[in-house]
Amino acid sequence: MARIGVFICHCGENISATVDVKKVAAAASRIPGVAHSVEYKYMCSDPGQQMIKNAVREKNLTGVVVAACSPRMHEPTFRRACAEAGLNPFLCEMANIREHCSWVHEKSDATTNKAIDIVRTLVAKVKKNKALLPIKVPVTKTALVLGGGIAGIQASLDIANAGHKVILVEKQPSIGGHMSQLSETFPTLDCSQCILTPRMVEVAQHPNITLHSYSELESLDGFIGNFKARIRKKARSLDEKLCTGCGLCTQKCPTRKIASEFDAGLGLRPAIYVPFPQAVPNKPVIDREHCTYYLKGKCRLCEKICPTQAIRFDQEDEILEVEVGAVVLATGFDIKHGDFFPEYGYGKYKDVIDGLQFERLASASGPTLGEMRRPSDGRVPETVVFVACAGSRDPAKGIEYCSKICCMYTAKHAMLYKHKVHHGRPYVFYMDIRAGGKMYEEFVRRAQEVDGVQYIRGRVSRIYERGGKLVVKGADTLLGARPMEIEADLVVLATAGVANAGAEELAQKVHVSYDPYYFYSEAHPKLRPVETNTAGIFLAGACQAPKDIPESVAQASGAAAKVAGLFSQSELVREPLIAVVDRQAPPLYSTCVGCFLCQAACPYQAIEKEEIRGRDGRLIKTVAKVNPGLCQGCGTCVALCRSKSIDIQGFSHEQVYAEVLALLNRGESDV
Amino acid sequence: MKTGFYPGCSMKGSAREYSESLLAVSQALGRELPEIPDWNCCGATAAHNLDRDLALALPARILAAAEKDGMYEVLVPCAACYSRLSVTRHELLGDEDLRRKISGLIEADYRGTARVLNIVEWLGGIPDLESKVRKPFAHKVACYYGCLLVRPAGIVNFDRPEEPRSMDLLMKKIGADPLDWAFKTECCGAGFSVSRTDLVARLSGLILDDAVQRGAEAVIVACPMCHLNLDMRRPNIEKLAGKKYNIPVIYITQALGLAMGIEPKKLGLQRHKVKVKFTQGLAKPPAASITPASAKPTAGAKSASGDSPAEAPFAGPSAKRGA
Amino acid sequence: MSDFNPKIVAFVCNWCTYAGADLTGTSRMKYSPQVSIIRFPCTGRIDFMLLLKAFANGADGIIVSGCHPNDCHYSSGNFHARRRWIVFRGLLDFLGIDVRRVRFSWVSAAEGAKWAQLVNDTAEHVRQLGPFSGYHRLRGLGVG
Questions:
Q1: For a disulfide at A151, which of A120, A330, A592, C23, Cβ 3.0-4.6 Å?
Q2: Domain for residue C114, yes or no?
């Protein structure tokens, strides 16, 4: 038999001014199951809490209803008080008679009656409450960071400096990402490599960081605190321990005319190569698609000249299995390539290049050693047209969003060009200039006013070659959409920033959601920008949306703080207000029929399949099982379940049915 | 399951040869193209500037007649008619109230069951067209799409709106060498065909100039308006430009007909203002001055030096364009 | 029917509408006392059969309200609720219950005034529709 205590708060006069609290207490005492009913001026005060504690002990209460303010205000207070008195905190509920009653209605019988209704509703609920224990999940204090660009580097360093182990996985032979390709960075024009490479070295030397370059995530299982990752370490064709990085092999390799990925196709590299001189690790990799030995079975020159005999032609991919407690996705972005801009001749004309290619042209370590020369004939371009929004904000090209970084890097490009070719004429076609950020607007102004970059507000309709020049046709919308033509030597398209080609596949591997453009979705667009909907998986950098270096770094540090917070305790304690699947004794075992509609509806991938087997190992049935580490307690599965086999603790079917009936003043016996 | 044919006014008048060549080709391909019974004017440029209901009702009546006659698709060779019929179908299928209203006006229930096809779409749907080629059309051609064949993109949903390639692919099938050129979809001035012939002369002149400079032997079109402006208005163009362009303008169906070995007369080639001279030598190997269609049309720098084929007398450097 | 005081049950989510109703209180806006709230973690948790249960036990009107689309605390629960509501409307119609007795709405945690407005509108609406007679008929038959 239930023994419920009801405690009615006056809240000074906040409640008692419009609600007759004595009448409420009297009415509550008549509710079946209520063993104790009192009113008091301030229930949340120390004496008030003491009243509750005493009553719990003396009256041997099985449940408590505090009729006062919103549970969003004081539920933790009263639950703690109950726990201190030895009552399971989940047997305490609050009846909100302040925000939902006394404050919103005039003083009247109707208002008092409504307060009584609310108390009766919560009494009915608490009678069905069950004692619950907090969920404890062990935490493996190692983080897996996917992607070794600036975001992944920053996240790794921050987590490692907080004293936790980090496993950093990078797909390419070296870490550094797109930032290592950049010439100079806005708005300060400091050299990208100068600020990046010390960080790369720090990663390599940090005792808490294990770096797996030229590696990819194969699979990820488990849940927050307890993930199991399989990492494919691709064959470098090299014994990394023996290789000293002397570079003799890369100098002697006879196959030398392969388009360099690092130079965005503008430079060449050999078949055994280090992507760039400051690479970390500074160990070469053999490109098996182009290596003469793998293609024709002959050569092995690198093997012969290697002073440490480090070359391993028969090396195979290796699968590593690691256990981690958290994952940071920092897989970055790409820019749009290919023939999606045929009218601009992108991919057709050598001198129509993209932003990354221009970075390499302008970089002191690039294919022209920083001299401004156009790809087709090596001449110095006298007129350069920069096209901002090449694909971005263009529904016709399927990309409706703003790529965010282009306005700034286009201003930087025009500026760098002018710094290198003083007599040159840079033009920028733009839609709007979006230069929100510290010192950003000033930077664009500098390009316009100090460096004399001609900004034309309008779009380019077509680019074609005529007599060795590129004719850029566009319109100047500030001069009445006047059509205009510029004969350029070089055109730079700020093509849209897009998700990496493998973004969707990776998202499915780790179970995070993504938007229609395959950028990963944060758990909440404003308040949880570094978390994903999957607990324990965090986001950093441009894999979430196009963003610049400062933003990527800030988000990476944010993600690292979340990971460090998670790792600050050895056990993760969570409220047990989660879904559970019905389990019972044989022969039924569970009412779950295994339709798994819940699995499809769950936003957190918290529903798993569980096989129920007999003693002989025979499969009896496959039912749903809720992973307590992942479930967030939304209850979508509960409302969906056809056989009512899944229920949510704290908002169970029994509880809400009891509430509805009590609210309508129908006792259980009336049903 | 039959495909109807909507000629529209041009095909019966100024573009007779387009109609003649289409029917000659369809006959040779063994494809019947019955005309839509009791068809009317599509309204073209006049109606939609004056009255929206009228602009929708005229094409709707045509399409309703085709549907009633059991046609599941309608071939509309004129690009302007194609545009009007496509827009009408798009708008009426997207707005049930409007569809009812227009159906009331034309006193027929328009359902939208018949698809609207342009000429390139129709030819592209013919399987194994290559096998029908008797005499490969081994010429450098500039495929001119004009404005309405591929636009508005969201309505016609055909090819890439800014850099189309469907006609180029067809030309390759019949052995031609389609050039990479810059004026594929530029305006010929059609809307001002009657009122501002000076504008037409300038715009069409730019198109011809680029085609000639890049070494094209013919401009291939799929629209009577384009043809009219590039061919019939040639004297105006030449007068304005102060130079001669001998490059012929050929309908896509005429080029196909020639490749299929159909007699030039049947294709109406004699009706052109600018004579199609190279048809006379079709049976012979190509003249020495004409490069065979071996070079791939990829290199952008092609013809940048201003080389022109022997057929075109104009070989001077490009005049500076006033924009 | 001026003396008719309808009973209205509000099924609301914890994160948006419950907090919005709290804000109505802290802002001291007044509304009709005929509405009482039952708290759910998310509108996605609401089994719409509960609405029938409420009607069968004397509710004259019902409000279902949660976070605005794309603002769900659990990212997609409100979309599930919206879909269920669309299907449920058809069922209500089939059962002969006036669809106007149920108000489906979005009230965010910042929309205290909207909550007051919603409650008042619904109360007025249901007052005009009169008591839910189906319930009283069932009671008369000794069912429900």
A1: A330
A2: yes
